[in-house]
Amino acid sequence: MTRTDGASRTAGNALLLTCLLIPFLARADIADPVHLRTDSSWRDLAPRLYIQDETDADLDYIKTEITFVNYVRDRTEADVQLTITSQTTGDGGREFCLTFQGLGSFRDINSVLKQTVSPAATDDEIRTALVATIRRGLVPFVARTALRDHLSIEFTPPTAPTAVTDPWRNWVFSISLDGWGNGDQAYSYVYANLSPNLKRVTERQKLELNGGMTANHRRFVIDSTTTITALTRSYYANGSWGSKLSEHFSLGARIEYLTSDYYNVRYVFAAGPKLEYNIVPYSEYVRHKIYIQLAPAVAHSRYFDTTLLNRLEETRVKNKAVLGATLTRPWGSVELTAEGSHYLHDFSKNRLSLSSTVSLRIVAGLSLSISGGYNLIHDQLSLRKGTASEEERLLRLREMLTGYSCWLGFGISYTFGSPYSNIVNPIF
Q1: DSSP conformation class of 185
Q2: Rounded distance, CA 389 to CA 394, Å?
Q3: CA–CA separation, 201 vs 89, rounded Å?
Q4: How far is CA 414 from CA 41, 205, 252, 357, 365, in A?
Q5: Per-residue pLDDT for the chain (428 aa), expressed as one digit of tens each?
Q6: Which class for 134: exposed (0-12), middle (13-18), buried (19 or more C-beta within 10 A)?
Q7: 3-state secondary structure (DSSP) of residue 138
Q8: Beta bridge pairs of residue 176
Q9: Do 395 and 228 form a contact (C-beta atoms < 8 A)?
């Protein structure tokens, strides 16, 4: 027998032995009656938790760190629903709002906890802070079960408060650069964006200045002698200031600057006041916001080429109104926006924009998400005069005359089977 034959026989024996052991290895995990009895005895007593996350939290980490509850896939199976939302703080960090709503026999227990993280916080620091806050919020629910005898509560005395001195006086500076590209032998595309930002946010006022430059470069190789390249660029700068007059009213102002070869705009300056009325108090923003905004503005524009209306420069007054609503509820979330605008010199030059994002849990295991928008467009004052070339139309190198634009996205999913989702398995 050759060495190769011996190695082959050894490998075959090892493979046969592995195949024979697989049923025993598989049964070993479920054949430990002590383990099963111990696990199921307290799992049956633990409250069932359903998490509605609107922030992309690390749910696997939460499940591995908080093991004194049963995680379920559907709200109808839960004893408590945890809704996680967030908003940006003045320094660029995030404030998480955790709403605990009792269901069934726990329906009289409700609480809201908040957790703030700094803009410099890492993903691990954020998830660790969230886990600590979720633990505190679940205590009243666990305390009502037989597991209360296994709770251990620690108290760390707070240190004496110290005076906080902010040398920056709430001013926050940031700058970002991002880009993307792809290509092959016959095609290439490069996108780049640079955007600085400056803002100052206090309890009553908010000031923000931002700007940026965006460039898109495309290259098409038609044949050995023909190559088409296209470059579009835009530069912009915006400034806004607002002051909260009450829990429902705010007043402010805005300025805008734009230059864009795609829109035939050499430059446009716009400025005007802003007024907002919020039907619900601003303090309840993380749960819902229903608002009306009015924003008239004066705009002075100069164009690269003569427009369809035979203009190279003009000054116009534009009115704009926005109606919006954002709701986060146990059954899902809804965001609706309607925006209308028109020019005072010609009311036929107007635009109406509608957009919506809806996420619903219809029945147990069945969820639906829809997002879309529709724009009625009659205000393209900067359109270039003349007929666009085939390249300009196909490569979208200039704005084209249109009466509308729209977009739509949807998704539906149905999940059934075990109601529990306690296990986290990171393999493969």
Answers
A1: S
A2: 9
A3: 8
A4: 31, 45, 46, 19, 5
A5: 444 455 445 445 544 444 444 444 333 333 333 333 345 567 778 999 999 998 888 998 999 899 899 998 888 889 999 999 988 887 778 899 999 999 999 999 999 999 999 887 888 889 999 999 999 999 999 999 988 888 887 777 877 666 667 788 888 888 999 999 999 988 898 999 999 999 998 889 999 999 999 999 988 888 888 888 888 999 999 999 999 999 999 999 999 999 999 999 999 999 999 999 999 998 887 778 899 999 999 999 999 999 999 999 999 999 999 999 998 877 888 999 999 999 999 999 999 999 999 988 887 778 889 999 999 999 999 999 988 888 888 788 889 999 999 999 999 988 787 777 777 777 77
A6: buried
A7: helix
A8: 195
A9: yes
Under DSSP, is residue 60 helix (H, G, I), strand (E, B) or coil? helix
Which two structure tokens, joined as six digits, stand for 427? Answer: 């393999």
Q: Rounded to 5 degrees, what are φ and ψ at 139?
A: -55, -45
Rounded CA separation 271/301 (Å): 12
Q: Do the Cβ atoms of 66 and 131 come closer than 8 Å?
A: yes
How many residues are there in the chain?
428
Alpha-carbon span 341 to 319, nearest angstrom: 5
All domains of the chain in start order, with CATH: 38-148 (3.30.160)
| Alpha-carbon gap, residue 264 to 302, rounded angstroms | 9
Taking a C-beta distance cutoff of 8 angstroms, is the pair 378, 353 a contact? no
CA end-to-end span of the chain: 40
As given in the structure block, the two tokens for residue 177 are 């650069």
For residue 302, what are its two tokens?
């100069």
Q: What is the dihedral of CA 252, 239, 396, 217, to 10 degrees?
A: -160
Q: What does the alpha-carbon distance between residue 197 and residue 328 come to, in Å, rounded to a whole number? A: 29
Closest CA to 93 of 64, 62, 115, 67: 115
C-beta neighbour count of 32 within 10 angstroms: 12
Closest CA to 131 of 184, 229, 62: 62
DSSP-derived letter for residue 76 is G
Give the tokens for residue 66. Answer: 């908080």
Which two structure tokens, joined as six digits, stand for 113?
A: 């906890």
Q: Which two three-digit tokens encode residue 165?
A: 């001195």
Question: Which tokens go with 382?
Answer: 């900067």
